[in-house]
Design goal:
9 helices, 3 strands, elongated, about 170 residues, about 50% helix, three-stranded mixed sheet
């Protein structure tokens, strides 16, 4: 927290985030000012909703939180409307690749992750357009051939015979 020349508390985005993570509200710092560069609506959204999910007290709280976050992703309509399964199947040039993609898509669909795949396609496209460099891949994500096809990582899981279940367990 910063203070101005007369001792008035001024909150910035990191202060608001910290308050959320500690379960505090704006009333805890009554009279404080919020830095004019902070998106007040977004901050209020977090202050109202996040604390109830911070400690995952209810069995489905994490799923509710994830769904709430996914519904607020900025993603152009062309990506929201993208038939991600058709797109990925179209990238397959052998029966073996088609079978693998089909198997993984079923796993992603069971978990309700098609919006995530659409968003990853959008994110990778934006990074390419802006010449952003990212790593070759790490952890269990490299077991997903679908993520390889989307360009999220550069490890061909079929070549290395990695099981998709390693990633989506």
């Amino acid at each position: 927290m910063k203070t101005d020349t007369v001792g008035q508390i001024i909150l910035d985005e990191s202060d608001l985030f910290e308050m959320v993570m500690q379960g505090r509200s704006l009333e805890d710092v009554s009279g404080a000012l919020v830095d004019h560069t902070v998106d007040i609506e977004a901050a209020a959204f977090w202050l109202e909703r996040v604390p109830e999910f911070c400690y995952w007290t209810e069995p489905d709280a994490q799923q509710v939180f994830d769904a709430m976050q996914q519904s607020t992703w900025h993603m152009p309509d062309e990506y929201q409307q993208l038939d991600i399964a058709e797109y990925l199947v179209g990238l397959c040039d052998t029966e073996e690749k088609l079978q693998r993609v089909g198997h993984e898509l079923l796993l992603y669909q069971e978990r309700g992750l098609f919006d995530l795949l659409r968003y990853l396609k959008y994110l990778v496209d934006v990074m390419h357009e802006n010449r952003v460099i990212w790593g070759v891949g790490r952890g269990s994500s490299v077991a997903s051939y679908v993520l390889y096809l989307l360009g999220v990582h550069r490890i061909d899981s079929m070549y290395y015979d990695l099981s998709a279940e390693e990633f989506l367990r």
